[in-house]
Backbone:
């Protein structure tokens, strides 16, 4: 009894130790999974940060050339020399207005050395800068001192925030005569950030948030502000009349050895934790902060713990399962003996059935081929012989490689053969190319199953071989026709946008011409510094032109990338980017309302962009007779009953009820010079994605096209 008691104690201690070790291992694995997930999140944030930094530098540097280039014009020198001459001022106003219109910036204006604006691109508007004093602005002070100025703040005249870049206007002797300033709005960047799933914010050198995907954080400070900072912002009027900047509602946690830092805050009434990384932009004086949801780290730890507990439970239940398995095997042996008895009783009936089945197989149009466990052909029906060109006497008893294997696909044939011999044939069948005896190719679908003999034993493999050569040829012809129609529609869309694309390319080409002329003048003067600067700007504009051409070529190409997960906001943004010039030409604008949480759709990105581009282009054409202030294309998307609904609405004249049934018909168009294939191809593309395209007239005038698509699998 004592020996038995000691054995039970040893067993209990062993189980206790095993459980303790298992729990320690599970806990360590959970911590490792959390650290690994945090590292993945940090890498993802860094990749996203690189994209945002490129966008910020592009927005800040795209117009850096403008103050220096525009300041070289004689009209600018003339108005600085004769500030009270109305004719000189008018010439300068019109010149600056024209330059600003071609460049696409928000405003361009000329300031004298006392800070008074002499000429501006908005001279004819109610909020004209002409006559306004900007002597307190840092960008004016820097440019007057001979340096380039860069300053982000709220406009003193318009109240609209923007990025101000300035450059001194110099005489031939190098003396500073005035300051030329360009204002650029970062509104598009702010709107793009609203679609981000996680918070993004941009702070100035004092730590004040001036751009953010979370509107509630705007103009709040990341750290306490000194009295000197508040006095400086009040003097510069950087953020208008604001005198107080409350701290961000954050609780920051920093952990040794972990990337970035943790931020705990309330968003939308919910307390959330984020992993945040900062990226200083010293050339701009800003700091970019990108965050990711830290809940994924906790979920990774919990998943690992649950998996560890599950594995421990499986091991615990393994012993019980083994006992049940042995009992089940005994029952199966008894059942097998009964089955064998029944099989012997029905052998005669099965032999007759076999004879009947053979006669039936010989009459089939589908090829039948049987092989034994060694891969030797033991049966072929006449349809298979006709398919390969070899007689039954030439095939029976043959081992691989078989004479009808295609010489170019021998490796693939061996792969399928080995899978079959290993007991893993393709359950849904596989496509195979054969070589007929006379040399022509035969495309087949092969379905293989185990061959069971009369005693219930696996004796080989039976394959059904279906000739699909004509079907494959028909599918290829149909696919080529569809691709040609889609390519023709893309070319037609670009044909309609040709003048707009020429206008898009005209801006960098004009800048190239200006910088080339300036470089020639600096070369003649021997001014190496300005010559190098002009040549650098020339290279930058050439790259910009190449980017426009690359974007167009990507849309026109015949072949597409194939099926992938597509973010709806990205599809709409890319389509609007191709139409940006045409919308400016037609004085139209777009209003996009897409929730950041909208799941992606599954499809071909280029084809879906083609559908959106066609719908947006049709909306612009439908509003030619609409007053310019009402030319708005509204794009919104939402998730309804497991499908994404994308609506494109215009404010045109709508579609006549008599023409409603012909809208999607091929070669039907109301557009002068149109092919009449656009909407027909759009519907074909959408239906190929298992979606639906419909339209309806909207109240008050206009049309709404609705595109329904399936979301990607989780």
Residues:
């Amino acid at each position: 009894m004592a020996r038995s008691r000691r054995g039970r104690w040893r067993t209990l201690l062993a189980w206790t130790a095993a459980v303790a070790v298992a729990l320690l291992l599970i806990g360590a694995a959970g911590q490792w999974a959390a650290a690994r997930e945090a590292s993945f999140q940090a890498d993802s944030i860094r990749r996203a940060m690189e994209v945002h930094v490129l966008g910020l530098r592009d927005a800040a540097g795209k117009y850096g050339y403008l103050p220096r280039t525009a300041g070289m014009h004689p009209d600018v020198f003339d108005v600085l020399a004769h500030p009270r001459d109305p004719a000189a001022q008018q010439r300068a106003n019109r010149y600056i207005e024209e330059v600003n219109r071609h460049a696409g910036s928000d405003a361009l204006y000329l300031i004298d050395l006392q800070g008074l604006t002499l000429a501006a691109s908005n001279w004819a508007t109610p909020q004209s800068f002409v006559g306004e004093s900007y002597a307190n602005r840092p960008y004016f002070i820097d440019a007057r001192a001979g340096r380039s100025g860069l300053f982000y703040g709220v406009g003193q005249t318009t109240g609209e925030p923007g990025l101000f870049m300035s450059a001194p206007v110099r005489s031939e002797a190098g003396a500073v005569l005035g300051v030329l300033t360009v204002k650029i709005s970062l509104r598009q960047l702010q709107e793009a950030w609203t679609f981000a799933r996680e918070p993004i914010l941009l702070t100035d050198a004092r730590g004040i948030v001036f751009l953010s995907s979370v509107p509630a954080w705007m103009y709040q400070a990341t750290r306490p502000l000194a009295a000197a900072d508040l006095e400086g912002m009040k003097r510069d009027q950087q953020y208008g009349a604001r005198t107080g900047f409350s701290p961000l509602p954050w609780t920051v946690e920093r952990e040794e050895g972990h990337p970035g830092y943790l931020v705990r805050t309330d968003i939308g009434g919910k307390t959330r934790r984020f992993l945040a990384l900062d990226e200083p932009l010293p050339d701009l004086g800003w700091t970019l902060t990108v965050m990711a949801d830290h809940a994924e780290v906790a979920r990774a730890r919990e998943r690992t713990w649950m998996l560890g507990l599950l594995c421990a439970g499986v091991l615990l239940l393994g012993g019980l399962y083994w006992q049940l398995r042995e009992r089940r095997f005994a029952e199966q042996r008894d059942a097998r003996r009964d089955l064998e008895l029944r099989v012997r009783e029905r052998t005669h009936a099965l032999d007759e059935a076999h004879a009947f089945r053979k006669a039936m197989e010989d009459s089939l149009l589908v090829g039948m081929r049987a092989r034994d466990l060694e891969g030797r052909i033991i049966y072929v029906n006449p349809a298979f012989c006709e398919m390969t060109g070899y007689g039954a006497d030439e095939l029976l008893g043959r081992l691989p490689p078989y004479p009808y294997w295609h010489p170019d696909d021998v490796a693939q044939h061996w792969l399928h053969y080995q899978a079959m011999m290993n007991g893993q044939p393709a359950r849904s069948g596989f496509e195979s190319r054969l070589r007929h005896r006379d040399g022509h190719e035969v495309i087949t679908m092969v379905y293989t199953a185990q061959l069971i003999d009369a005693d219930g034993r696996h004796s080989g493999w039976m394959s059904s071989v279906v000739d699909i050569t004509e079907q494959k040829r028909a599918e290829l012809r149909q696919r080529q026709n569809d691709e040609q129609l889609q390519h023709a529609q893309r070319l037609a869309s670009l044909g309609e946008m040709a003048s707009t694309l020429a206008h898009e390319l005209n801006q960098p080409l004009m800048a190239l011409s200006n910088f080339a002329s300036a470089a020639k003048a600096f070369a003649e003067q021997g001014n190496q510094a300005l010559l190098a600067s002009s040549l650098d700007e020339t290279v930058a504009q050439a790259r910009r032109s190449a980017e426009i051409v690359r974007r167009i070529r990507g849309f026109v190409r015949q072949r597409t990338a194939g099926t992938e997960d597509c973010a709806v906001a990205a599809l709409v943004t890319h389509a609007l980017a191709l139409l940006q010039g045409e919308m400016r030409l037609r004085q139209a604008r777009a209003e996009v309302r897409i929730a950041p949480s909208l799941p992606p759709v599954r499809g071909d990105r280029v084809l879906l962009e083609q559908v959106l581009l066609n719908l947006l282009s049709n909306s612009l054409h439908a509003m030619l007779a609409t007053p310019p202030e009402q030319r708005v294309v509204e794009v919104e998307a939402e998730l309804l009953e497991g499908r994404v609904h994308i609506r494109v609405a215009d404010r045109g004249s709508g579609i006549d009820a008599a023409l409603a049934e012909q809208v999607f018909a091929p070669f039907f168009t109301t557009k002068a010079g149109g092919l009449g294939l656009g909407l027909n191809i759009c519907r074909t593309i959408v239906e190929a994605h298992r979606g639906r395209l419909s339209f309806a007239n909207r109240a008050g005038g206009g049309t709404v096209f609705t595109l329904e698509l399936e979301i990607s699998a989780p």
Remarks:
- Residues 375 and 417 are 8 Å apart (CA to CA).
